[in-house]
Amino acid sequence: MLDSPFKKKLFLGILIASSCLSLTVYSVYRALTFQRREYYEVINQSEEYQLKNGHEFERKVLELQNNARLSEDWAAEFTLDEINGWLATQYLKRNENKKMLGQEIKRPRLLAYREGLQLYTQYHGSVGADLMINFQVSMTDEPNQLALSITGVYAGMWPLSMEKVTAEITRICQEMKLPLKWNKEGEHPVALITLPTEYQALPGRKIWLNVIELHESEEKLVLVNVYKEGKETQEEHSQKEYKIVLQGTTSLINE
């Protein structure tokens, strides 16, 4: 027979172990189910607002093509709302884009994060979680070479290995036949991607991208769908506006 003090210590030990396990499980659950408020405001923007921004993005792309065809120097600006409007209303309508992302990836959006950008998506696999890839993008001193620095990968707040992301970037670059080299900036992997200079839409010309930067501008009011007392309604939310700025040059192929 076990003496009473021993039973009390055993019971106390089991209680403490159970509490620690419960706390660990709860902490993991909270970390995996973390949801960034800015993302849910973006995906709940009104359909009209997203359509308008998606169409504006496509209009600016056509304008950029015309400017690159007619001018030696050109520039373009795309707000994150325009990019996200296009992602929400146009991008995933194309089967090849769905295949590239994979069936588990839903509702990708681009957000500003600290000194760079964040690709935020919902993952519907064996474990459901919000996935976030933090990165910075810039041009190097090499012609048309883009540097993509991966600064963090998370499921909710849970940090993940960057190997999966670097493998996916390698696969996508191989499929698109884009020259790729890997470098390191501290502990962060950096993809050095050489962009093509020739495009079917711009025959007889070479396109050189010289600058890609993220700029912050003024705040604005956006209509967001919200649920109150079981009913969907719309509210105005104040959001900072960010834009990606491109600058480049065009040269004739025979120059």
Word description of this protein:
With 255 residues, this protein is α+β, with helices and mostly antiparallel strands. The chain has one domain. Helices cover 35% and strands 43% of the residues. It has helices at residues 4-32, 37-43, 47-70, 80-89, 95-101, 163-175; strands at residues 73-79, 105-113, 116-124, 128-139, 145-155, 158-159, 180-185, 188-194, 205-228, 231-252. A hairpin with a 3-residue loop joins strand 3 (116-124) and strand 4 (128-139). The chain is globular. It starts with a helix and ends with a strand. The model is unreliable at 18-32 (pLDDT under 50).
Compute the gyration radius: what is it? 24 Å
How many H/I helical runs?
Answer: 6
Element pattern in H and E: HHHEHHEEEEEHEEEE
Poorly predicted regions = 18-32
Major sheet = 7 strands, antiparallel
Amount of beta strand: 35-45%
Q: What overall form do the CA principal axes indicate?
A: globular
How many angstroms separate the termini?
96 Å
How is the quaternary structure best described? single chain
Number of strands: 10
- Sheet/helix structural class: alpha+beta
Rounded average pLDDT:
79
Number of domains: 1
**Helix content range of the residues, please?**
25-40%
